[in-house]
Design a protein that fits this description.
Distance between the termini: 30 Å
CATH class of the largest domain: Alpha Beta
Order of helices and strands: EHEHEEEEEHEHEHEHEEEEEEEH
Bound molecules: NADP nicotinamide-adenine-dinucleotide phosphate
Largest sheet: 7 strands, mixed
Number of domains: 2
Mean pLDDT: 95
Number of helices: 7
Number of strands: 17
Helix content: 10-25%
Low-confidence stretches: none
Amino acid sequence: MTEQNHFEIVVVGSGPAGFTAAIYAVRGGAATALFGGVAPGGQLLQTMEIENYPGFVDPVVGADLMQKMLKQTQRLGAAVFQESITSADFSARPFRLKASSGKDYTADAVILATGAQAKWLGMPSEEKYKGKGVSGCATCDGFFFRGKEVAVIGGGDTAAEDALFLTKFATKVYLVHRRDALRANFRLQEKLRANPKVEIVYDHIPEEFAGETKLTAVMLKNVKTGAPRRLEVTGAFIAIGHTPATELVKGQLKLDEGGYIVTDDHTATSVPGVYAAGDVMDTRYKQAIVAAGAGCKAALEALAFIEG
Ligand code: NAP
C-alpha cells in the first residue's frame, strides 16, 4: 500500500484549536491529517490544572485533556503525525507542505493552529520554579493562590488584567514593571489604582526567583538606582507578551503588527483555502475554549471550501 501524501484538509498544530479542527473536518467527511509536532498538546501541556474547560467536574491536568483530544481525533479517523510542518507553499493549489521527516504532503485546504507561546524572562531560576509558583497563565493558575501574596511581571494589558484577576484570590498583588509608566490602557490603569490589593512596583525587574521546593520570594532590582528589593510571594505570573508561531507563513499570509495571522470573522486568512484558528490569530482571549471554538469554525469553513 502506498503511503498517503494528499489530504483534503491538513491541520497544523495540536492545541485545542488544532484537535477541534481535525475532529470536525474528519466528521465532515474529509480526508484529514493533523501535524502535531513531537509532543502534541500545545501550551496546555504546561498548565497545572484546568477548571474552566466545560465537561470536567473535577480539575483536569492540561496534559490529560490534550491526551483525550488526541485519542478522540485518532478514533474518528484523522491521520495524526507526530511531526512538524517545516515549510509551506500557499502560492498554488493543492497547497504543498514539507514535514520535519522530509516528506512532502499536499492539501486542498489548510488550517493553521500553531498557537502562540507566552514569553518568558529566560532566567534559570524562572525555569526551576515553573509549575512550582512561576506561571505564564493567571487565568489557569490564579485560583491556586487563594489567600496568598503574588507578583505579576509586565506592564501591558495582559499584566494589568492578570493582576486584577488575581485580586479575586490573592491577598496582595504586586505588579512589577520595568519602566515608570504602564503600557496597559488607561481604563485598566484606573482599575489597578483603585484596587487596594494592588501595589504597582515601577522601575523594577526580577533578578532571581527563590525558594526551597516551591517559590517563596522574588528578588527585584531597581533599574534606576540598582537597589535590591525582596517580595515575599508564593506566585509569580510572567505577563510580558506572547509570540505567535507564524514563522511558517511569513511572507505568504497577511500578519498584523504583532505577528498574528489576520483573519476575517470566519477564520479565513488572506489566502483562499487557508484558515487560522486559536492563539496564532487571537490577540485578545487566548483561552483553550475560544481556540477550540475557532478550530470548529475553521473546519466548517474548510469543508465548505473543498466542496466548492
Ligand atoms: P505587550 O502589550 O507586548 O506588553 C508586554 C509588557 O511586558 C510591556 O509592558 C513590556 O514592557 C513588558 N516586557 C516585555 N519584555 C519584558 C522583559 N523582558 N522584562 C520585563 N518586562 C518586559 O503584551 P500583552 O500585554 O500580552 O498584550 C499583547 C496584545 O494583546 C496587545 O496588543 C494588547 O493590547 C492585547 N491585549 C488586549 C487586552 C484587552 O483589550 N482586554 C487584554 C490583553 C492583551 P514595556 O512597556 O517597557 O515595553
